[in-house]
Structures are given as C-alpha cells and as structure tokens.
C-alpha cells in the first residue's frame, strides 16, 4: 500500500504564520491538533454533527473535521487559543455555562463569530447559530444566558474586567 | 466563608481558553495508534481470522486477537477483552491493529479477513427468557464471580435480585384495586462529548503507565492486577480532566486493550481512541428495560402492595449491568411507603451492546416504570396523581424495600419536595387544557429517590499540602468529570480552615501513585466521601499548625484557633503567628527549627453497609436516600403528534447547597439529559440486532433551542454525617424526567405511553393502534 502524498502548507493561525508538512487528505482538525499542538479544538464525531471542533476561517465558524487543511491556505484561521478575554469567555465563566468543558471551545468560537457578525442577534438568530453544537452537561439555559450577556456587553461596549473574579 | 457561595470552578479559565487537556490531547512523538476491528454481526461464531496481509502493511507494528486472554468483568468474569470464539454483540472488538499512525492502522484494519458463522441473535430480555432462546453464555456455570452475583446457568439470566418485604399476598388481599402496567425501552447511550481514550506503556523497570479518560483510575489499577497478575504497585494510572462521563466511563474496557497493545509492541506507548461510532456501540451503553409493575391500593389511594418485575437488558456481557439491576431493586418502590413488596430484578443477556452505569444508576429506569403505574392507578381511582404521591410519600420511621429503617438524617424530606413542586407548577390550577382545536397543554409529575449501591468498603482519601505562602493544595482521588466536585472540596477545606478559597489550590489530574484513592467517581458520592476525607485532612492540618504555633507562642495547643491565615490565641487574637511562617516548619531567630511542612491527611470509608440477603434482599446498601419531586409541562399537537417541552421542574432535597450555581447546573444538566433520553434517544436495532444509528446525526441528543425553561429549587434537610449536611445531587435531576414526560404526554394524548423514546410516531402508533405498520 502506498503512503498518501504529503505536502507543505503555510497556514495563518491566530495571527501567526505556521508551516506544516501533512497528508493532502488531512482535515484541518487533525493538522491543528497533531501538527500544531492546538488541542483546544476537540474532535467529537468527525462527521459535522456535534460542533466540538468549530474554528473560525476568515471569521466564519467552520467544523474543522469537515474541512481539509489544504483548503485553508491563504485564509485566516482562529482557534480557541486565539481568543483572550472576549466577552463570551467571561460570560461563560460567570454563568457556569460549561461543566466538563469539552464542547466549550466549539461553542465559544461559534458564539464569538455570532457576536461579531450579528451584534443585534435576536432569539431566532441565536437559536439558528447555536443548534449546530451539542452540550451534554449543561441544560443550554446557562449557555443562553451567557450568549445574551455577551451580546449586551458587546452592544454597550463594556470592556471586560481583566481581574478574574472568582466569586459571583 | 466559602460554603454556600457560587465559587467559580477552579479550572474554569482553562476550559474557556482551550488550555484544558483531556486524555487524547496528550500527544507524544513515537506514540503508536490502535484501530479496533469490530464485529458486523450481533451473534456469530468466529471461524478464522487472517492477519498476514495487515501485518505486512506499512507502519503496522502488531495485530492483536482474542486467543488466550483471560476473561474480564467486575462482578462476573464473562467477557474476553477481545472476542475469541464467538462475538455476542454488533460492534464487539475482534482484533486490534497497532501502527505508527492512526491512518495506517485504519488502512491495515481493512486487510484483516475474518470468517464468521452467524448465529440467531437474541433481541430483548423477554425474547432471551423464552424457552429455547439461543444461549449467549453456554459456560455461565463456570465463570468466576463474586459472592453477591447469582447467575442461572442454562438460561440467559446473569443475575437475579430478590426483594421480599412483608407479605405480598396479604397486601393484595387488603387492596381495593389492583392495577398492572408494563413499560419498555431499548438500550441507548451516554454520548459524552469526549469519546473514550486510553494510552499505555511499559517502562524498562516493568512499571505500567496508563492514561485514561475514566471515572475509575483506581479500579483500572486493581483490575489490571486481577486480570493479568501484574503487581498493583507497578501500575500507575493517570487521569486528566474528563470530557463528560455520566457513568459511561466507570467501566474498564479500552484500558485493557491499551495494556495488551503496549505489551505486544515491547512496551512502546500505544493510544486507543474511540471514534464516535465505537464509543456509542463498542464501548458500554445505557441499559434497556422491560418491566411490569403491579400496585395494590385502597380506594383512597394508599399503597398496600407492589409487585415488580424488572428485566434489564444487560446486553452481551454482565460487567456493571448486574449492579445496575440490583440498584433498581433496592429502591424499587420509588420514594413511597409500601408495606408489602415483592420484586425480582433480572440482569438478562441479549445480543446487544453491553450495559454499564448511566447517570441515576437504574433509578430513572425504575421510576419510569413505577411512576407510570402510579398515574394509571390514580386514573382508575379518579384521584389526583399528586395527592396519591403525597399520601404515600416516604418519611422517617418507614422502611425501604431492603428493610432499612429511615431516620431524619438518612432520608430527605419527600413531602416537602412534593408540596413545593405543587406550588411551583401551579398544579391545582390545571393539569390539562386545550388551547385550540389541536393544541393541548398538559402537566405530568414524578417522584424520585436514590441511594448508592457501591462496594460496602468504598473509601476516599485526601491530602492537603501547605505552601510557604500559607496557601493549601488539595489532592483527592475524585476525577473532575465536569461535576465541579473538586471546587466544592476546596470550599469545604477553606470553610474548615477559615481561609480564602482563592488560597486553596486544587490538583485536577489524578495520578494513582501520588493521589490518595477514591474508589470511583460515581454514585453522587464524591462530595460526601471525599468531603469527609477533606474535613479529616483539614483537622489533621489544624492539629499540626497548632502544635508548631504552641511551641512558638509558648501556649498549649488547646488554647489556639486556626483561621484568617493565622494561628491565634482564642482568648486574645492579638497574640498570633501567621500560617505562612509555620507552614514549612518554624525557624527561631537563633537558627533552631521545629516542625516541617504541614501535610494534612484524611480518609473516609463507608460504614455499616451490608450486601443484600439473597432470598429477601434485606440489607443496607447505602448511607442515605436523597429525594426529589419533578414535573414537566408539554404542549402537544393533536394533528401531527409533535410536542414541545415547555417547562421542566425539579425540587430536590440537597441536604445543604454547598455551591448554588454549581448545584443548579448539576440539576438542570441532569434534567436535560433525562428529557433527551426520554424524548428522542435510543438505539434502533434491525432484526439481526445490528445498531442502525450509531452516529450523532441519526442518534440525535437534544440540541440548543429545543430546551424547555428549567425551574429548580432545593430543600435543605441535612444528612448529619455529611460535610455541612450535603446530600448527593448529581443524578436526581434526571430521575423523574422520563416518567414526568411520559405522564404529561399520556395525559395530553389521552393514551398510556409506556415506551421510550417518546417520539411522535410512537404516540401516533399508540393512539391509532399498531395496525398501520411502520412509516
């Protein structure tokens, strides 16, 4: 059996340029995780059903198990490791919007894009965007509360506090 | 102080930044990868396995088959880690390919040629118990088992638990009315978002290093010793954060394969990682059930007798399913006082994926059966279903089905839960209303209770080490599976040491070499057992701090208090020494020193628990019974049989709420899981017992936007032995959901709905009769 051909890819990830040598058939998910050590992006089903592996490609949420790495050349990729102190991360912490934390990066990437693209998102827009991700620990009510607070924070342009509060 | 506050979980920022690492996130250069080759048949004899071609494929280092391996299983050793002579369920592991990369392993797996001779497959417990049904385990009489497992050789019965309390004949004789209800549901899955993963390697000194996504790192150690004769001391298990478990990561399965794989490649590190399909079918699943409940009652609705038969679908191997079937029997009546109880709970072999704990451990299954029957009884007697439950609610002074006398401490306040539920749901205003020609709203309720049925000698240990700044590290064997227990332990320690919880650090990962044992992170017993151990460890640390301070301050330790970062004289707090000055011992100005690092240690072991009597079931299975009352409001469309879950309610006796937001999260998350299971989850089997929907596209858990509004309240009736009175709450939210949803929909549709999942087609079928066949 022949080894599949490998290729060199130059990717733009979280504002950095990264070079990898990988199989042409490799998905973005495994290149991020195995070649670049960005393990915040989680495999859940490898079938586009659960949303755990969601990253942003040119600002659009994409399930990285469904996209070849080679397709992302020349595009800006953002993973959970590229987000710091965003309103949605703070809101997730405050609202206990996660438990085991495994689906969390995917949810946060998706919601971050939602907030950027639809700062005035109404209930039905929120619903449409978030139904692509599965959380098995929370009731989703906590996530809903976090999304709404983060949207509000974005609207009123409140800068998140850098002091990480441990009590609410 | 710290207890009673919504302290943010200690690993919160790791989890929202991608820093949090799970088993499969730890990659190593040179690590090998395994691919599981699984059975396409549910029941077949293995005629031959041809592995030559696979072994010759690029990158392949080993191919493992099942020949010559010991049998495994926690209660009864009936399962080969890799199928040897025959396969007993669709998805069972038949071979394991180990290669340099996962892609190479997958490619080589396709080159393995296996010849099967298919056998007739057994599809449900009732089918398995029929005369002449194919036997799954011809050697049932020869399996090694523990003393509390009672298989019935020559049948497909792996275990039977008998409950005999009072005199069932007398109970029915005293009854004005007797109703009988049967329920059923197929096996389903936990669907943790992190699929299971295990890695193993053997170092040159012979030590075995395993990493596993598991609720039971200490059990892995014990079982590898038991099964393979390895020295327990040489087995080290590492468990980082776990991405959801819900009982599904309590059994030990992939760890055994990883161990066998590393042995086959000279000790090199091998990773065994489930894809979603294997995680749903090959690894153990949520148990299925067929049950019949007969209730005898007076015309006022007072229960006189309950006769219950549980036929649990344990699947192909008994493993933990035996225990689940026993747990349902232990609490078979639900949270009600019944004088005369007769229950047979069977763990039955079928050619289906094998079962293991699922959050609530037999109790949402038990309550679905009994609570449906209670609603049917209320209907026959024309009584309010809430009134019937309230009238029979369990109280201190009553006895449980296994004849444990209940006290104010060891049982929660069931009447109070029901009373509060009635107010929250506005039960008395309406239970069914028609909004228009097609739209009906209806409410349904359920009671729930649960005790744990874990090993009678289960224990937990905690070590507290002090840092030179006076802060404390908590080291506990509880796995952080998402429940936030380790943060709660930090709160308990902070409360006892009267210190800021920010100064209590938590060791998240488990390493069985340095972490004290916690039996398993299961059964809602983490806070109770590890909490008791943490209190003991804190007390031990306080004693040491006082001893050192007494010497420095020239007082007796008895006159000292520890708190607020100081050890001070109770009588005059102005006389003190900061904890940080003595946390590593104390150095006098002349250089002399006393003490040393303060290391608090504590442990807790369950006390005075007993196995059940094989004939009557009498015995004490667990330390306390937590109770709850739950309800669901649905909006049902009579035209197309669809429905929306509008509201879900739970009132749970938490004993004491240690972290309000975390407790709410546990309750609501469990409710969500219960509603998802009841409304849309379950494996679909074809006639040959192959699973048709082992993917999240075809097996679709509840998604965002499909969730109802959750209303949760806690009652606080302390369990006086528990840390600050707290009772287990990780599972109760789930307990009543299937039954409450079924009761609401039965009322809405006007037809008894006794099967799960409650999909529109099922409701349509029940209303129209089964004459239409399938869509």
TrEMBL record, chain A:
Lineage of producing organism = Bacteria, Bacillati, Bacillota, Bacilli, Bacillales
Q: Which residues form the 2Fe-2S ferredoxin-type domain?
A: 7-83
- Top-level taxonomic group: Bacteria
Q: In which pathway does it act?
A: Alkaloid degradation; nicotine degradation
For this chain, one GO molecular function annotation is: oxidoreductase activity
Q: What name does UniProt use for this protein?
A: Xanthine dehydrogenase iron-sulfur subunit
SUPFAM superfamilies recorded for this chain? 2Fe-2S ferredoxin-like, CO dehydrogenase ISP C-domain like
What UniProt keywords apply to this chain's record, in alphabetical order? Answer: 2Fe-2S, Iron, Iron-sulfur, Metal-binding, Oxidoreductase
One matching Pfam family = Fer2_2
